[in-house]
Every structure is written in C-alpha cells, then in structure tokens.
Amino acid sequence: MKIYLQxxxxxxxxxxxxxxxxxxxAQNCINGGIYDPESQLSDxxxxxxxxxxxxxxxxxxxxxxPGGTVMCQYHWEDAVGPVEKRVRRKNLIWGGxxxxxxxxxxxxxxxxxxxxxxxxxxxxxxxxPEEAGNWVEYCNGTGHTYYADLRRSHGYEEPFQVxxxxxxxxxxxxxxxxxxxxxxxxxxxxxxxxxxxKLTDKTxxxxxxxxxxxxxxxxxxxxxxxxxxxxxxHHYSSENGKGIYExxxxxxHLGELIxxxxxxxxxxxxxxxxFNPWYRFPPRQEKIAIALDEWNIWNFKDDETYGLLERYNxxxxxxxxxxxxxxxxxxxxxxANMAQMVNVLAPIITEKDGSWFQTTAYPLMLYRRHMTGERxxxxxxxxxxxxxxxxxxxxxxASAVLRSDGTLCTAIVNRDFSKDYVVCLDSVPxxxxxxxxxxxxxRARCTMEGSCVQQNEMQVELDEILVRRGSIAIISVNNYxxxxx
Length: 485
Ligand code: AHR
Description:
Number of strands: 21
Shape: globular
Order of helices and strands: EEHEEEHEHHEHEHEHEHEEEHEEEEEEEE
Helix content: 10-25%
Number of helices: 9
Largest sheet: 9 strands, mixed
Structural class: alpha/beta
Bound molecules: alpha-L-arabinofuranose
Strand content: 25-35%
Strand order of the largest sheet: 19-18-21-16-15-14-1-17-20
C-alpha cells in the first residue's frame, strides 16, 4: 500500500525561533555543565568549549534563562558585578545552591558564543515590577541612568539588547513558592510588570503565561492581548509506565491544545486600535503568537532529582521529530524552546572529560539544518499503529518547507516500530535525496562511549520512498514542481 503526500504552498515563513532552547539554574545544567571555570575544557570566560561547540550544532536562534520554576526566587541583582560580591542563596526549588557566578552578563556572553538571542524570564512570584523594569534598563539602557551605568561599570559598555521577556513562569502552579497567581491576580500583576518593562524599553516583546486551561487563556488574552506579543504554553510528554507509544499520545494532546489556542488567538484583532496613549508605550504590533517555551519528554520521578537527569532513547528522538513537524505545520507557533539544553532534560550531556549528544539531539540538528523556509502544508492519510496500547496513533508524521534556494524538504517520521511504509510524492523531477536517521532499537540510548544513531544518505525515487520502521527521513528535491503546487 502506498501513502500519498499532498503538498500545498502556504506563502508563510516558518519562524526559525521554533528551534530555541532553554537553560535553567537547576542541578548541573549551568553550573558544572555550561559554566565550569575549574575545568580544563573551559575558556577564559569559564564556559565549556565543548558545550559551545555542540550548542553551535543545535544552533538555537534564541535561548531562555534563568527559569523555569527557579525564577520564583531569582533576583537578578544577586548575580551581576564583581563575582566576590554576588549573593549566594539556597536553591529552594531544585536543591543545592543558587550559584550567582553565572548571571546576566555571563548568560549574554554564552548567547553570543553560540549565536542565540537572549530571552529572559522575570520573577513575578517574589519580585516586583520595578525590579523587572530595572533589569530591562540594566540590559538595554543606552542613556546615563543608574542601571545602564551599572552595566557599564561591570565592563559592558554596549547594551545587551534583550528583546524577549517572559512575564513570569507557570504562575498558575500552586505548589511553586512566592505569590500564587490565580488568573485575576496574574492579570493585575502582569499588567504592572509589562508597564514598568515596556516604559523602560518600548521595543521589547513580552510573553505572558498561558496554560492548558482554555478559561485561563481566554481571561489573560481578553485583559492583556493589547500589550503582549506571545502567549506561552508548556508541554511535557511522558511514558508513565504505559508503553513505548505513550509519549505520542501526549504529543497528540499538544497538537489539539495548539489548535484550540490558535482558534482563540484568531478571535483577537491583528492590529490593536484605540490603545490609550496615556500608557505611553505602543501596543502590540503584530498578531499574537504562541511561544511553546518549554517542551520535552519528562518522566518525572518523586525523588531529589525529579527525573530531570533524563537519559533519552531512540523513541524519544522520534517524538522530538514529531513535535518539530507539529511546530513547522502550525503557523501560530513563532517561538519554542526545548527544555532544556544541557544535562537537565537535555540533548547535550557533559562529563568531566567531555560531552556527548543524546538521541534527541540528532533530529534537532537535522531539522535545524534543513527545515527552514516557507511552510508547505502536508496532507496524508496515515495508517494507525496497530501495536499501540492506546488506539488512534498515526504511524506517520510529516512536515515540509520550501527553502529559499528552491529546494523542497519533506520530513517524514515513521513512529511505527513494526512496519515500513512506502510514501509517494507527486513530483517533477523523479528523484530526490534522502537523509535517514535510525536507532539500533526503540529503547537504545547513546553514551559518552558511542552513539546508537545511524545516519544514511541515498537517492530515492519520489513515487516510491521506503520509510523504514522507527526512522526519521528528510527528503530534499531541487527544483520541485507539480501541477498542484
Ligand atoms: O524544565 C523543568 C521545569 O518544568 C521548569 O522549571 C518549569 O517551568 C517546568 O514545570
């Protein structure tokens, strides 16, 4: 049986910020991971050279910091200026201590080394709107204000130009410390934060907290849609002892959520009219977008690690590719940050003598290299996976882009571990190039000693493409045309 792919140009660019990453002051993501001044592998800034090298392969256009939940206790002034004067506190969220030696300036330095735009998250739980506004001024101030001059006195003459600012993090989560925001309190507080921050720098883009709850999302957008650029949602899939296909069920739920949020966003005007000039900063200038600013597989554990030191298998790499397909296919998503980049729920793992890629890094690198350009809408009638415990999981997931050089790239994931499928792409020319990633088994993992992922490249006939069980394929066609395209 052949599966036919139908392709249609959309005329819209896929926003490359969907390939963003996130780092948090949690366990050894930053301290002892990215930042390790004692290590032989670190450069003059205390940043691990091998991590920089690997991060450049992932090439995140944007990097989010410092949390996550740790944001609830994060006071940015603890971690700027001379290191010996910085304030060290207990890490009340993830255990250990909150090491202030990697603060705002070090984060910016790291972003510059890997070519990412910084994205900062402000503390709404135990911080104030004024503190957040001061952080904006410290980062972006160009005049001779106290905070712009403070940055200069720390050795940074040029502004950091931080464009993306998250207004809190998962503020609906009652167990987190600090002020617990029900939706009305979130709206009231978020507005005050945004006022201080946008009055400080009118050009910044804000990301407000969204959730799985439609009621929350509608309430925050009704009140704040004129002053926010993005609505954040977070998603973690897990296996939960329910079998190898279970995370794909989570991925399907994410797709449904994105669909509902996109529909909700469509009910707000693209342009904000009649914005009260007495706010003294401009309203939102573009259509509201979704920032999926935390996403990954997380098998939570009820112990002191919380399961954050996840070791990913080949199935998790397929899941990652499916989520990338979903993001490429969803015009409402204009920002996404995999949570997280190093050691914690991460594609990059560091050890004392080196570092290595987990399985999930491989689709990230492949997509980052090939899957950018104009979104091409894909439709296909996928069979469902017969072996899956929960029914209705389609075997194939796909997305496509038309690159600026005219190459069509189609990504296909076969997440069925027991069946190969033959896919047909209606095309002139007849041949294309296929890069195929496979793992040695669904539960295979990479280690420092070796990778379980193989990459093969071959020429394929486009009306008969064999997509093997448990594989990720990217098919490139130069000068693609078809009557329907
Ligand atoms: O990424 C780990 C945690 O997951 C983040 O700190 C939090 O925002 C989310 O719940």
